[in-house]
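Incident log, structure service

09:12 report received: a user says their structure output differs between two submissions of the same chain.
09:20 pulled the input from the user's history:
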Amino acid sequence: MRTPLTRTCFACIALLLLTPRAFADQPLKLHVPSPDWRAQIIYFLMIDRFDDGDPANNRQGQHEFAPADSRKYSGGDLAGIKRKLDYIQGLGASAIWITPPVKHQWWDGRTQYGGYHGYWAQDFDQVDPHFGSLLDYQRLSDALHRRGMYLVQDIVLNHTGNFSSYGDRFDAADPTVGFELNRQSEPPGPPAPPLDRNDVRNPAHRKAALYHWTPSVRDFKVREQELTYQLADLDDLNTRNPVVRQHLRRAYGSWIKRVGVDAFRIDTVFYVEPESLVDFLQSKDQKAPGILQVARATGRANFLNFGEGFGIDPPFADAQSLKIKSYLESDKGVPVLPSMLNFPLYGSVIDVYTRAMPTQVLAHRIASMRALYPNLGLMPSFIDNHDVDRFLSTGNQTSLKQALLTIMTLPGIPVIYYGTEQGFKVQRQAMFGAGFGAGDKDHFDTAAPLYRFIQRLSKLRLGERTLTHGTPKVLASNQAGAGVLAYAMSEGDAQSLVLINSATDPVLLDNLATGWPAGSVLEPVFSIDGTPPAATVQAAGRLTLVLPGSAGWVLRAAKSANAPAPAAALVLTLDPLANSKVQGDFDVQGHARGATEIELVLDGELNRAQPIKVPADGLWRARIDTRRLFDPAVEHRLVAFSRAHTAVSPAITFQIKRDPIARARASDAAGDDHGPSGRYVYPTDPGWGKNRQLDIRSASVSQLGDALKLSIQSAGLTQNWNPANGFDRVLWTVFFSLPARDDGIRELPLQNAKMPAGLRWQFRLRAGGWSNAWFSAEGASATNEGTLAAPGAKISVDQANNTVSFLLPPGALGPDADLDGLRIYITAWDFDARYRPLGRTPGPHQFGGGEPTDPLVMDDLSLILKPSRPKRP
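09:34 re-ran on a clean worker, output below:
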């Protein structure tokens, strides 16, 4: 019988026999100067899910390899990445970011989940055997550097794997109480020295104090818990301890020296003290110097370190942005990290392009990040990754292209998550055919439409210095909803103009102050679809044009001489309002002498423009319908427009006063959150059952104009996992059944259930802590969620009253939907990239008391809107 050592020796002999002489004589190219990171595009991949270059390393003898199981290894490795570098570079990427390659915990029996992702370190110094050898890693580095590409390694400073736990029992005065080593870990613990001193019951280990022996974070708003408690039950390193600090510097410095890593992405930095990060980068310890000193010794003067702080702000808020800023520099201006992942930008991109929120949400974010972040050009930006839903799970390919155009034309380092270029919808699906979710098909198609699109975007970004080194300035956005977003990217005297229409219908961009002289001819540099027409800047540097639905354009001033500014063919006026705050419909007037017909355009919506016949004296009057206006905080914009003369009036602005009208309310019995059979139980993880997040207590609906607000109250509302939407451990799936319609379906997609008798749904909301998706019933079935639609719901949370509210804007239920008699069916369950499983016995993250095929509904409630139409204001 061959031992693992014997097999390794035979493999080494074979390698020596088969290695070409030329390769043996050529030293590996591991160390190269740092690039200008602002001019790079990063491709982020999960090693295990990318490509399997060496099937011999897949099985390590612990039943951890099972490609059909999303929790286990699929077989991707470092050799697989190396052989696909043509594919990655062909996309336009100049660097790859890989998940941690270090030796780690392979399977955690407590949580019934695997460490294929690499973030559960057991030995920070070694390559995990699933991924290959140190030589494999060096060869990958060499291959990248010979192509002029760079290597970014994901690292963890905050924790190891889950080798110990507390559960519900913890006494801060005596941390031995309730402490247990994890006997269900494969490989068994402890971590490699010096971190093997992990048993608080051993006096020597306790004295060494290499860990914070604490339970999982219970309240993320308590800073001391954030810094010293366990994140998701992972053993929390005491990063204030000099031994821990020295070990981390030595281990991660060795990857730079041995492999030639060019940058680090630092995981979970919100859970590490900023001063520990400063020590990690800048320590003067000669035995284990700081990372920047190690990098400089290898010729890397600009070794990039960017942190991951999972902080997403709601629209127009900046609390998480400020927290990210605190990890870039202290409140005294002392530098901490040079860069952080731009999570706030990600959140605003998702809001605008998948939920049809106002483009002013992105305008605010662009201005905010410019003001807050000292090195904005080094902030990696992204539209999806391994910790959030795939963009295409809540958005469509049209909105995906606009999101990609946005991050490719704003400051920061664009990051493309593997599989986005192939249209992936599953968060951690494998690229290679034998891996998880790949369907026995490789997904390295260089002719795929999204691959080709990203190629074009990469060429655009790298060909326009204003986009890699410029400063953004927002020129126009829409407060009321989807529509125009216009911003300029300027560097010195050069300027690029980015114009995006997030609406599916054409919109009017009026009176845009371009900053270019009148008569300047703007030539198209890029368009998502087709070729935009050249535009000429009008008097006073203004630009007015029509943007097609879902457009995305990049323009710049032509190098040729500017044309004369065109003379105005028609002068339009719009008289100011006596009061900018209006109650209901109101009258406006203006002049359009020389025109027979004009249009009134509200918030840029050309498809809803109001045609006006102009009398002979040119004085026109009209009444503005405000049924679709509902938010008193929004400043609406109105202009008079003549398509025939391409003329537009100056804009007037106003706000609406609107009181909500109650339409429905229903209560639900307390304690009935046990499923249809009455036998369901919550998962065993302690954050669930005692809080009863899935126990519906009441629901209500109010109407504001043509908008609806649905509020759901539950027995408890938690934020244990720091959710982006303000609540966690519950997913609300809400079905809308319109009266007098016989279309739609009865099946509840993916929930093994049907609508109440006699009902069919036409629209469906699925919203949890990190997801918020709106679907129509087109294409829906028991196994298909339907068709993603827009606009989606705006979420707000009332923590004190355990209430989550969803605001559905006008048009969400279809144009001019009849709301009288609308039936709403609400279900409670939970979601983690899929509806959580149900089994006979509960698990840490699995519901119990049923069969996998039973309905995934813990509690439910129905409402019907009163059949009395509210009076027009």
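09:41 both user submissions now match this output. Likely a transient worker issue. Closing.
09:42 reviewer note: Confidence is low (pLDDT under 50) at residues 1-23. Residues 585 and 626 are 5 Å apart (CA to CA).
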